[in-house]
## 1
Amino acid sequence: MNNTLILPLIASRRSIFGVPVYDLGWESALSFVSDLASLPVGQVHVSFLNANNANILHSDRRYREIVRDHVILPDGIGIDIASWFLNGKSFTANLNGTDFVPALLTYMASPKRIGLIGARQDVLDAAVARFRQHAPWHTFVPVSDGYFQRRGVESVVTELADLKLDILIVGMGTPLQEKWIAEHIREDHARLVIGVGALFDFVAGVVPRAPEAVRRLRFEWAYRLILEPRRLWRRYLIGIPLFMWRVLQSRLSGHDRVRTPPRFGAKPPANGIGRF
């Protein structure tokens, strides 16, 4: 195993509500996950932890058990606030899946076979077309939409065994996607499996990203709330205060204050890397 893979394995990981979250800069994270996709044996799952997912950890024991075995990357300002409050410092980089996955595809120079599952069929098809434009040296396979009405789960799983994928990207939303992966995805399906939530909607252009200035200020959540108040009001208007209350409880209990080795830092990706 080469040093680029060994170093992040021993890098600082912060405990957020009892689950370890990797503290890596952009270059370290991209190199690390790219190497995981090239392992000759085994399978690694990558997840992203944001404030909403952290709330789910408290109410869904099965989800918590599943993600404890994942490579978890920090997503959003809420997790940064939690890390600062619990560990005295924020994460090196905001490695949210919407930016990280396209950047990863750009970073991986070696061609990969990449399968996609999730979203509506029209959204999935549009996302695949954008991915093919974005990183044409990879092969993108639209395995199935996220509903399986016509095909059934077993048909999808059978097809996966024949596709010989390097990477499988699943976008069904948390915690459904993590549970579905844990129940159905085997080592022979792909070396690297990534749960991406609503990524396909963003890539396909069905849901617009916040303007660059809003993202820089870490207020993309507010932009999404304005666009979809009926769907997201509970997640943000109730979920954010609940999340902060749980951070305070964790701080008072001392469960998440752990000593960690020095973190690996890296500069953010160059302007435009991986973005649509």
Note: The chain has a mean pLDDT of 88.
## 2
Amino acid sequence: MKSVKGIGFIISILAIFLLAACGSSDDASGDGAEDNDSEAVDHTIIGIEPGAGISVTTEKAIEEYDNLKGWDVELSSTGAMMSELGTAIQNEEPIIITGWNPHWMFAQYPDMKYLEDPQGIYGGEETLNSLARIGFEEDNPDAYKFIDQFEWEVEDMEEIMYEAEETGEDIEDISAQWVEDNQDRVDAWAEGVNDGNGAEIKLASTPWDSERASSGVLKAAMEQHGFQVTVTDVDVAVVFESVASGDADATLAAWLPVTHKDFYEKQKDNLIDLGPNLEGAKIGLVVPEYMDIDSIEDLEPK
């Protein structure tokens, strides 16, 4: 009996080891499936609004990269994209999104990375440029000078956007408070500028938080100096058209040299480029750090 019991004990132990081994094999198989990130994300990039510069560039990337053959870009809204990103990160699931700096996504989710772009479809460092209508300088040299001297940092813009996201407060209100708290910066923009005396200034912008932050800050700063500023949020194509046609006096929303290249090239003869108001911007495909890919070329065709 003792021998039988001993054999039974040994068999039980062997069974446990075998089950563990089978479990390990299944886990390894699961990991192997998850290693194919292209299939895991269903060969789909999560994007934002159709017509946005980064959306157009992503559609071009799918055409240009052979290894993105058969891929789709799911275009909806920035809010929808961020919701999907949040869910994926919470569950540590693979996801590929269209990303850009400045944006509060990198403050909320710091462990994300841009995929390398060997073909340079997304370009390198971007700038946000100020554009003005032809004749604006002659019509209002002080307003023109103020806008020409306006410049700030990526971190400034992301600070405002992140606070808006965290608190739910309107970006325009947060921008106005930022102006109150950074009077030395405002004084630099206003150097040599006379009081606006109630002159009406029309700015064209986009409804994205980054541009709402910059136009909100400029509006508050200029109104401190006696200008009356109206900001109109429109589609990016309309931004360029409105400045070129003179319907708007200026914009801060031109992402160059890549993101808004097509819009700029179409209208450049009918507007004045004042140069960058923000440097260090970037666009591209972004993934969480836990994904084991580093380049667009790591992805596989469908």
Note: The first strand starts at residue 44 and ends at 46.
## 3
Amino acid sequence: MPDGGQRRPLTLSIIGCGKVGQALGRLWHERQTFVLLDILNRSTASAQRASAFIGAGSVVADHAGLRSADIYLIATSDDQIATCCNALAAAGKLQPGSIVFHCSGALSSLELAAATAQGAAVASVHPIRSFADPQQVAGHFDGTWCGSEGDAAALAVLGPAFSAIGAQSVEIQREQKTLYHAAAVFASNYQVTLIDVAQQAYVAAGIAPELALKLIEPLLSESAANAFRLGPATALTGPIARGDLATVSRQYQAVRQWQPRIAELYQQFAALTTDLALRKKISKPGKP
């Protein structure tokens, strides 16, 4: 089993080297954490672009062309992780002591069952951040939290490797991986959707789209900062927090006339916000 105390640098190959694989590969190459051997993508052209971005890695055409590596990162889309792991195992590239991991937030290390059957140690390590721009991620990765689960032998190597590029690890429960990822979706993807809904509402009220975003930005930034600093319940403001139910009712009717589907969303958030306001009231009871 490879371990972080070896003098020989551990070798890494990346299967499905898209945005996540490119950012991590570049960081590990620059910090000399791993020696990058091979990159396998669906197309040779995309693998060549990934190699150029990372500054290392030989392009191979298929799993059979992969050299034996200490560690394999399968950074494909979620629906291809198990398939690629099966192909890796079938190609005879794994042995007791190999490490195979993926970075999916939604799927657990159980997707790598074919590697486990070959005696490899498996894990999932999910960086909790957006990878829309790999270059930006590679330049600002320090402090990134990573949700980790899997075999102890794999995490014993991957934990220090992620620490070497500035990551902070949090252990998660394998059986709760889907719920864990749903939390990230609420915090990231659905936040973007809410910004879009707010912008649509401003535009429907007569505000230009570009100006609408400028109106949303300070509201969002200040609310988020207060929630992180004070906790969500204490940071809550607005008509529901004030008990101004008449305003809430008028807003609901206005949104319903504009977009019935969004009115349903407004109603659901109003109910959840009412619960949050109650928690705020309980935590800060009024004077007798």
Note: The mean pLDDT is 94.
